[in-house]
Design a protein that fits this description.
2 copies of one chain form a homodimer.
Chain A: E1 10-14, H1 32-48, E2 56-61, E3 67-72, H2 85-97, E4 108-114, H3 118-127, E5 131-136, H4 138-143, H5 153-161, E6 165-167, H6 172-184
Parallel strand pairs in A: 4-5, 5-6
Antiparallel strand pairs in A: 2-3, 2-4
Amino acid sequence: MNNWSAPAQQALVTVPDWVQSLVNWQQPYPDDTAKMTLAIELSRQNVLKKTGGPFGSAIFDRASNQLLAVGVNRVLPLHNSTLHGETVAIMLAEQRLAAFTLASDTGRELFTSCEPCAMCLGAVLWSGVNRLVCAGTAADARAIGFDEGPVFNQSYQYLQNAGIEVVRGFMQNQAKAVLDFYASSGGTIYNGRNG
Amino acid sequence: MNNWSAPAQQALVTVPDWVQSLVNWQQPYPDDTAKMTLAIELSRQNVLKKTGGPFGSAIFDRASNQLLAVGVNRVLPLHNSTLHGETVAIMLAEQRLAAFTLASDTGRELFTSCEPCAMCLGAVLWSGVNRLVCAGTAADARAIGFDEGPVFNQSYQYLQNAGIEVVRGFMQNQAKAVLDFYASSGGTIYNGRNG
């Protein structure tokens, strides 16, 4: 075959430049409130800056409380349906560590502004984090038209059986407010089958 | 904060160079057998070339039968737990089309050498393909130690309810042989929590 006609065989995953002015790589984030406040603020700024959907995530080292990586939804701007807040944060954390898993003796935790969709729930399992903290609920996302896919109570049970602590509904109202703002400001509700 | 200390904020997703000598971007793949043979051969070559885990996928346009993109598992070499065969193929197909969904009037189909894990099953839904054909089973992957995550009968039902035709077990033996070869040749069984 002719190589000249081969399509480009790469995809680049990035977060927007504005992220750097929002995060603190040096100082620890002392508690769950500080950590989730960052995840939700990432979701809010992603809407305001029009750089993706209303979802943000942040991954921390549990021993030091230091930020390892952040992610925001990049589906529309990067033409990539797999780039939810959680998957982007996981990819960037693993790049930073040059490791295929975030598992460690003391553990890592993922804070997300909304409960993970089916894809991201699986990605959390493969990431090696041992704590997942969620703000908005799947119902909050569905209320503005986002599909969450096949996520069941047994799905969360599976993660817990694998040793992952799961916290849901923490600071839910603040996260839900961002989702509702996105919808009321005319944000695109993208699902795979209606594109 | 000091920008100099900010970690790299990108991840690059690629397939190995050898892929180009295996695929045909010009000629259609006439039937399911030709399409799945490619997906399985991608999985086999990925083991032989030691460029990732024993999983391959290919996405086709259903009207023209032409190849849109391929993917192989890249978890270990690219330090990225989200890069399974299916997600890589989906990302590259969307990059090629410069679109966040593969949905089209005539449809696209994803052939995968093994039933998708929980993450990839969700990713298939968001990709916009309307046909999923699987060779090896989740049980085949579990038999050599791979975790498949929370995938249930209702998960497949959810995809079918969303309009995705699902075929499972097509050319299963050929795909299972690659999984078994990977295990018997000492391939790393990577799961998130044992990294």
